[in-house]
Design a protein that fits this description.
Blueprint lengths: L2 H4 L3 E10 L9 E12 L2 E11 L10 H7 L13 H18 L4 E6 L2 H14 L7 E8 H9 L4 H7 L12 H23 L17
Helix pairs in contact: 5-6, 5-7
């Protein structure tokens, strides 16, 4: 199966942001990671990943409580961090390349509590007046919701444990790590659903088929 066929021409891109707080208009993005997916032997699997450490925007503030949670000190290695605008544009370039390679029409953000990540991403887009986003403007796949449906838990750690996905508490709250385990969780849920539906022909109903039965 081609990934462009599975999601109506959309490319799911797993994303994780680590931020300096909970307010996308007041707190900065500090880390950004993405994982691209593809099919291998009829199973959806993580394909390749990218990550960016980002300089905090000068006009935004870091909530001390967020630093206690993530352990990120954005000033410790400031010279090796990318400007927020440059990081977002580099990220979008990779997303567009992968979207084109897979003959998809648009990317869809996949994240754990996707409203949070999407709100910070959209705030950065507006802040830097980036005109074109490769992502669908409002559709996302939220693994917190999907994890609750598939495994009975919305917390990433608990959903991964119930899905038999290794989860290292010491590595958590790092964008690259959280993105990796979120990608594994999303793939696990999609593959379980696919295996459960084999033979039912639900993915591509005939035009005249009654969609209310899906």
């Amino acid at each position: 199966m081609r990934i462009s066929e599975r999601f109506r021409g959309f490319l799911p891109v797993v994303v994780d942001l680590e931020t300096g707080g909970l307010d996308p208009n007041k707190n900065p993005i500090l880390e950004l990671a993405c994982s691209f997916l593809n099919y291998q032997d009829e199973k959806l699997v993580p394909h390749k990943s990218f990550s960016w450490d980002i300089k905090p925007q000068p006009n935004l503030e870091i909530d001390p409580s967020s630093q206690l949670l993530t352990g990120i000190d954005p000033l410790s290695d400031i010279e090796n961090r990318a400007d927020e605008k440059a990081a977002i544009k580099s990220f979008f370039k990779e997303v567009r390349r992968e979207t084109k390679t897979n003959e998809c029409t648009r990317a869809v953000l996949v994240a754990h509590n996707s409203v949070f990540d999407n709100s910070f991403l959209n705030a950065a887009i507006q802040r830097h007046r980036i005109k074109r986003s490769p992502f669908h403007p409002f559709t996302t796949f939220d693994t917190a919701t999907l994890g609750g449906v598939a495994f009975g838990h919305t917390v990433l750690r608990e959903a991964c444990q119930r899905a038999d996905i290794a989860y290292d508490e010491q590595s958590a709250h790092c964008a690259s790590y959280d993105c990796e385990v979120t990608a594994f969780l999303f793939c696990k849920i999609v593959n379980l659903w696919h295996n459960a539906q084999i033979g039912r022909n639900i993915f591509y109903p005939d035009p005249g088929e009654n969609l209310s039965q899906l």
